[in-house]
Hints:
Elements: H1 3-8, E1 16-20, H2 25-28, H3 42-58, E2 64-67, H4 71-84, E3 94-96, H5 113-120, H6 122-130, H7 142-162, E4 167-171, H8 173-183, E5 201-203, H9 204-214, H10 217-231, H11 233-251, H12 259-278, H13 283-286, H14 292-315, H15 325-335, H16 342-348, H17 354-377, H18 389-412, H19 414-424, H20 426-443, H21 448-453, H22 458-488, H23 495-506, H24 510-515, H25 526-564, H26 571-581, H27 591-605, H28 612-626, H29 636-646, E6 662-664
Parallel strand pairs: 1-4, 2-3, 2-4
Antiparallel strand pairs: 1-5, 3-6
Helix pairs in contact: 3-4, 5-6, 5-25, 7-8, 8-9, 10-20, 11-20, 11-25, 12-18, 12-20, 14-15, 14-23, 16-23, 17-23, 18-19, 20-25, 22-23, 22-25, 26-29, 27-28
Enzyme class: isomerase
InterPro entries: EF-hand-dom_pair (IPR011992), EF_Hand_1_Ca_BS (IPR018247), EF_hand_dom (IPR002048), His_Pase_superF_clade-1 (IPR013078), His_PPase_superfam (IPR029033), Phosphogly_mut1 (IPR005952)
EC number: 5.4.2.11
Amino acid sequence: xxxxxxxxxxxxxxxxxxxxxxxxxxxxxxxxxxxxxxxxxxxxxxxxxxxxxxxxxxxxxxxxxxxxxxxxxxxxxxxxxxxxxxxxxxxxxxxxxxxxxxxxxxxxxxxxxxxxxxxxxxxxxxxxxxxxxxxxxxxxxxxxxxxxxxxxxxxxxxxxxxxxxxxxxxxxxxxxxxxxxxxxxxxxxxxxxxxxxxxxxxxxxxxxxxxxxxxxxxxxxxxxxxxxxxxxxxxxxxxxxxxxxxxxxxxxxxxxxxxxxxxxxxxxxxxxxxxxxxxxxxxxxxxxxxxxxxxxxxxxxxxxxxxxxxxxxxxxxxxxxxxxxxxxxxxxxxxxxxxxxxxxxxxxxxxxxxxxxxxxxxxxxxxxxxxxxxxxxxxxxxxxxxxxxxxxxxxxxxxxxxxxxxxxxxxxxxxxxxxxxxxxxxxxxxxxxxxxxxxxxxxxxxxxxxxxxxxxxxxxxxxxxxxxxxxxxxxxxxxxxxxxxxxxxxxxxxxxxxxxxxxxxxxxxxxxxxxxxxxxxxxxxxxxxxxxxxxxxxxxxxxxxxxxxxxxxxxxxxxxxxxxxxxxxxxxxxxxxxxxxxxxxxxxxxxxxxxxxxxxxxxxxxxxxxxxxxxxxxxxxxxxxxxxxxxxxxxxxxxxxxxxxxxxxxxxxxxxxxxxxxxxxx
Length: 666
C-alpha cells in the first residue's frame, strides 16, 4: 500500500488542492509550450484570480505551497494567493519543485496543435502525445511524467497530509492528468487526455472525480468529435459546399432556398461561429499584441486595392453598359474586408491570431461605410446601397451581439467559459459547415451541369466559362501578391504574423460582396452575375482546402527535417554562444555563466528575467544536467550535446536523482 493510500484511510489528515495554471499565450494561440517558458495572458490572470476566489470560498488555509518553476505556474500561484489570502502563516515560503513542471514536448514545442494533428494523423497524434509509452522526438513519455509526479507527491505532499496540514499545488495539465491516475491507484497505461480547466482549484477527490467523468465513454466520444471537427474543419466546409452544389444541380430547383430563410441561416450560423471563436479571444488585450508592421502591410494593401478599384469604377473603363456589371463585381471583390472567419483560419494554420481577429473586425466596420459612400457617388451602377442592410444585420446579429455575449461570459466566468469552449467548439465548426452547405445550394446555377458540359444554352455556357476564367485569375492574383508580400517582408514579420497577413489578404468577405448583388435584376447579362457569385463562393470555401494541404505538406516536411537533424542548433551557433558566455576565457562555463545562459533563454521566450532565487534554482538543476562528467564546469562538448538534443530551452525534466524543493517568494 502506498503512502497516499495510507493517508486516504487516515481521518486526521490534511487536504491538498491542485490548480492548473491560467491561460498562457501558447494556450491562446493553440500551440504546445511544454518546457518553453511563456507568460499568462490577461485572461489567464483573470482565471488565476478566479482560482483565488475558489480557495476563499472553500475557506481553506494552507501550511505549504508547491509550484512548478515555470513562469505561468508561478504567476498563477502568486495571483491566486494574493486574491485568497489562503496562507495560514502570511510569510510561508513558496516551494519550487521542477518535478511538477510541464511535460517536455521535444520538437513539438512551439508548434500548432492542428497542423501537428494533420501532419501526424489523428491516431498518430494521439499515440505520440497521449500514449503512456510514446513521446515526441526529444520529448517525454507520459509514464515518465507519471513517475516524477508520483515521486513529488509521496515525498513532498504526503508528509504534510499525515501531519494534518493543508497543501496547495500549482502546476500543469500534463502533470495533473498523470497525477490523477496515481491518486486513483491506476497505472500510467490507463492514461487518457483530459481537458482540465485552467485556473480551477480542485481538491484531491474533485481531481479524481473529474478524471473519472472525463474518461467516460460519452466524454471521450465528445472529445473525439471535437478534435476531429476542428482538425478537418476546412475539409468539412469544402465538402458541405460541394454537397449543396450537387443537390441543387441534381434537383434543378429554380427557386433555391427562400431569400429570408437563407439570410436567417447565414446570420444564425455566423453567430454560432463568432460566439465560439470569440470565447477564445481577448480583444481588449489583443490590440496591444498587433505590431505596427502587420497593420501597415494589411492596411496598406487595402488602400492600394481601394485606390485602384475606385479609379476603375469612376473612370468608366470597366462599366459602360449593364452587361459590364460583372467586371465591377470582381473589382469590388478585392475591395471588401477580410472574412469574419479569418481568426478561425489563423488558429488552424498556426497564425498569430491577434492580427486576424483585430484587423478583420476593424476593416469589417470601416469598409461597409466606405462602400455606401462609393455607391452613393457611383449612381451609374445598378447597385443600391440599401443592399448593405443585410451585411449590417450580419455585423450586428452575427458578429457584435454573439461576440459581446462571449466576451461578457469570459469576463464573468473565465474558468467555465474557457472549459465550455474547449469541449463544445465543434458546434461553431458544424455551424459554418451548414452555412457552406446552404450557400452551395443557394448559389449553384440550376443549369450548371448542362452549361459546363453540354452547352445547350450558348450564352449561359459562355458566361459560366468566362466567369470561371475571371475567378481563377482573381484568386490567383490575390495569392501571388500575398506570397510576394510574405517574401518581401521576411525578417520584418515573424512566421505567425506573416501567416496572419496572408490570411487577411486572400480571404475577402464573400457574404458582404454577394449581398451587394443578390437583388440586382437590372442587368443585360444576369447569367454572368449568377456565375460570378457561384465561382466566388466555390473559391471562398474550397481554395482554403488546397492551401491547407500545401501548408500541411510544408509543415510535415519541416517536422521531418527537424526529426532527422543531428542537432537542434548548428555547431557554429553553439560555438559562438559558448564563446560569448565564457567571459573569463577559461574554455569552461561556471554556474554564473550558465545563469547568463538561462537569462538569454528567458529574454528569448518571455522577454523578462526571473528573480534571483528562481534563476538560482533553475541554474542549479540546469548545471547538473549540463555537467555530465561532474567536474564542476561545463565544457563546449557538454553544452553542444545538450543544445543539439533539446535546443535553447531550460529542460529540467531530464535531471536524474532526487529533487530538493527550494523555498522562494514567488
